Amino acid sequence: MHISYKPLWHTLIERNMRKEDLRLAAGLTTNMIANMGKGKHISMETLTKICETLDCDISDVIQLEREENCTVSIGNN
Fold first, then answer.
1. What is the 3-state secondary structure (H, E, C) of the chain?
2. Residue 22: which domain range?
3. Which range (27-31, 46-50, 55-59, 71-75) has the least confidence?
4. Alpha carbon of 70 to those of 23, 38, 58, 64, 75: distances in Å?
5. The CATH number of the domain where 60 resides is what?
6. What is the pTM for the complete model shown?
7. Domain tally, the chain
8. Tens of pLDDT along 18-45?
9. Measuring CA to CA, which residue among 37, 62, 35 is closest to residue 48?
């Protein structure tokens, strides 16, 4: 599984905000925004700042997505 920021991008669209608006309002760096755009992980502290700034739930910011080629093996190896 991996983290997707699709809910955040949809939330910004619904609120007529740009990534830059979020960056300034939440006090984020351009690197944090760029990392989210690339699907990279950010800290829980940053996620909390985003939720507080947008007055929203974590599910409005991230979601877990299954990786298509992910296989899990459980057994006695």
1. CEEECHHHHHHHHHCCCCHHHHHHHHCCCHHHHHHHHCCCCCCHHHHHHHHHHHCCCHHHCCEEECCCCCCCCCCCC
2. 2-65
3. 71-75
4. 33, 20, 25, 13, 16
5. 1.10.260.40
6. 0.81
7. 1
8. 999 999 999 999 999 999 999 999 999 9
9. 62
